[in-house]
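About this split. The held-out portion is used to measure sequence recovery: a designer receives only the structure tokens and must propose an amino acid at every position. Recovery is the fraction of positions where the proposal matches the reference. Here is one held-out target exactly as it appears in the evaluation file.
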């Protein structure tokens, strides 16, 4: 199957409709394999196993799983873990989890060589996490060292913008805290 769509084996995604991958409920899902930074690979290529969507974890489980993914050089996958917390968590914590997801996506873009997008998302995520922390009066929610994470994100954003090329996602993985 080419880049423009077509039919393919339904596999575990439930099939295609009009060239789009669908899950068993008919929702659009991209079933293409992905590399470790979440970039789509051609169908039939061996990719990295994707994070399951919609998993409800405790905040501690979320932080531990995301940290392991970050250390493994999989910030795209860590973003999906944070996104689950953002969508499933209590309303008063959504800005925290969304900001953490933005930081992970910022690292993803920086590792892919997208300096503009990487720096922008790193700064946006840092601002969101910092703002949430100040409003909530929490400087270490679930063991996350907010101040250190904000410094990491802003420093990395500056280095990414300096034009040194893609960063190493493993070497640049933040330590969330604990």
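Reference sequence for scoring:
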């Amino acid at each position: 199957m080419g880049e423009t769509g077509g039919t393919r084996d339904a596999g575990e995604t439930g099939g295609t409709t009009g060239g789009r991958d669908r899950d068993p409920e008919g929702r659009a899902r991209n079933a293409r394999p992905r590399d470790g930074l979440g970039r789509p690979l051609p169908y039939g290529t061996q990719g990295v196993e994707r994070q399951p969507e919609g998993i409800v974890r405790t905040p501690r489980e979320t932080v531990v799983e995301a940290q392991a993914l970050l250390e493994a050089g999989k910030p795209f996958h860590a973003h999906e873990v944070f996104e689950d917390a953002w969508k499933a968590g209590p309303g008063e914590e959504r800005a925290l989890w969304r900001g953490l997801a933005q930081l992970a996506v910022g690292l993803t873009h920086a590792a892919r060589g997208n300096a503009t997008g990487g720096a922008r998302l790193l700064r946006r995520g840092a601002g969101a996490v910092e703002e949430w922390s100040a409003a909530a009066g929490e400087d270490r929610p679930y063991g996350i060292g907010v101040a250190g994470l904000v410094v990491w994100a802003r420093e990395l954003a500056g280095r990414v913008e300096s034009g040194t090329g893609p960063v190493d996602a493993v070497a640049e993985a933040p330590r969330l805290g604990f």
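Annotator remark: The radius of gyration is 17 Å.
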